Amino acid sequence: MKQVWISEKGAPEALQLREAPAPTAAPGQLRIQVAYSGVNFADIQARMGQYPDAPPVPCVVGYEVSGTVDQVGSGVSGFNEGDRVLSFTRFGGYSDTVVVESGWAHKVPEGVSLESAAAIPVNYATAWTMLIRQGALQPGETVLVHSAGGGVGLAALQICRWRGAVAIGTASSGKHARLREMGYAHCIDYRSQDFEREVMHYSDGRGVDMVLDPQGGSSFRRSYRCLAPLGRLCMFGMAGSVQGERMRPLALARELLTTPWFHPLSLINNNRGVFGTNMGRLFDEFDRLSPDMVEIVRLLGQGTLAPVVDRVFPFDEAAEAHHYLQDRKNFGKVLLQPPGP
Q1: What pLDDT, on a 0 to 100 scale, did the predictor assign at position 241?
Q2: Any bridge partners for residue 232, and if so which?
Q3: pLDDT profile of the chain (341 residues), mean per 10
Q4: pLDDT for position 52
Q5: d(C-alpha 188, C-alpha 68), whole Å
Q6: How distant, in Å, are the alpha carbons of 31, 152, 281, 332, 333 from that of 97?
Q7: Which end of the chain has a smaller Cβ tally under 10 Å, C or N?
Q8: CB 88 within 8 A of CB 104
Q9: 65, 32 contact by CB (below 8 A)
Q10: Phi, psi of 211 (to 5 degrees)
């Protein structure tokens, strides 16, 4: 079995291709021959030593895969060898063979490629959890989505459109035309524009009903100020703390020091809500979240949800994939593809 390992904390070049024994499906598990592995920002933070939930280095990260079932553990029903599936992985996803709990996997609908399927689990489950489960998004509401051109940002856009909500987004100016074509009602250049001022101008001073913010630090405070009455702020990352290719303790400390505390009286008096989402901490809740994934996969099969895959890198170019995502060059999902047999 081939895997991409984080050999040490540091730059993307710390990623190494290694061989390891193939796993075997235990009772209740599926073994999957991986077609594609998803790359997420949490993987970058793990490589830099900024993701506390990651296994100790050296390790194999990766939260999601698509592929074909080649072994079904005892006690598993509903799956057969040869089934095309998408699945979460609790790390270990940067592998050409993975073993997962059967409840983490879902069959890929007919007509959907395995490439598209690999872009579903983390991004769409994160966006769905924020918008629908925690945020109770209503038709006609307006959502500000930071990092609008990323995997979660595009998933959020499609869920907003399905729900009948309006999405506005922040992104570099080079992505604006395509974001508008895909359905964003308004785009803000986070590099040259004050998103708080732009949101208030766009909304005639009212603010928005929800903000999805993965940036951290002072961005959380400014996003909170963008909320209208009954508005909700969802925080799902600290991407602003990632500066350069290696962990910078001063940059991390600065982000933490500028992260706001939300006083209960402020929340009460402003009729606002604040919550956080971390899919990596929800593996023990998958029985509750399974109906959400069933609906996501159903909408995928209908074409209502259509992942945008930006680039696919071979396993031996995993470092380039991390550079590409960390430099925010992507428009949509970045995937890794293991070598053929």
Answers
A1: 60
A2: 210, 273
A3: 96 96 97 98 92 93 98 97 97 98 97 98 98 98 97 98 98 97 97 96 97 93 97 89 61 75 93 96 92 98 98 98 95 95 66
A4: 87
A5: 41
A6: 7, 26, 23, 25, 21
A7: C
A8: yes
A9: yes
A10: -130, 135
Give the phi and the psi of residue 213 in degrees, each rounded to 5: -130, 115
CB 6 within 8 A of CB 95: no
**What pLDDT is recorded for position 272?**
97
* pLDDT attached to residue 249: 64
Tokens of 182: 């895909």
State the pLDDT at residue 180: 98
Closest CA to 30 of 82, 86, 76, 84: 76
The CA distance from 253 to 263, in Å, is 22
What is the per-residue pLDDT for 247? Answer: 57
Structure tokens at 83: 């089934």
Q: Which candidate, 129, 132, 133, 79, places its Cα nearest to that of 103? A: 79
pTM for the structure as a whole: 0.94
Q: Please state, in angstroms and rounded to a whole number, the distance separating the CA atoms of residues 68 and 70.
A: 6
Q: What share of the chain is helix, strand, coil (3-state, %, to 5)?
A: 35, 25, 35
Residue 249 is encoded by which pair of tokens?
């303790």
| Helix (H) or strand (E) run with residue 253 in it | helix 249-257
